[in-house]
Amino acid sequence: MTDKTVREQVFCILAELCGFAVTGEEQSLTKDLFIDSLNMVMLLLNLEEAFGFQLKESDMNPYDLTTVGDVIRLAEKYEKYANE
C-alpha cells in the first residue's frame, strides 16, 4: 500500500474504472460514475489488490455499495485487519 489514504486510493481506483475524476463521497456509483455490473466486479478485485485483503463473500453484494462513501467504508473495514 502506498502513502495515500484509503479515501485517496478509493478515489483513484474509481477514477480508473469510470474514466473521470471522483469528486465526493456522496456520488452514486451507478448514476454519477456509471459503474455497471462488470465494473463493480473489477472494483471489488481492485480493492482486494490495492489493499492486500480478501473480501468475505457477504461483503461482495453490489447492492450494498451505492455511493463512493460506501466503498471507502468497506475498504477501511478491511484495511484495519490487513495491517494487524
Summarize the structure.
This protein has three helices and no strands. It is mainly alpha-helical and 84 residues long. Helix 1 (6-18) packs antiparallel against helix 2 and helix 1 packs across helix 3.
Outline the structure in words.
- Helix content is 51%, strand content 0%.
- It is an all-alpha fold.
- The longest helix is centred in the middle third of the chain and has 15 residues.
- 23% of the residues are buried.
- The mean pLDDT is 90.
Which architecture would the CATH scheme give at its second level?
Answer: Orthogonal Bundle
The total domain count is 1
Q: Give the oligomeric state.
A: single chain
> CATH class, please?
Mainly Alpha
List the helices and strands and how they pair.
Elements lengths: L5 H13 L18 H15 L16 H15 L2
Which key features would you list for this structure?
84 residues; 3 helices; mainly alpha
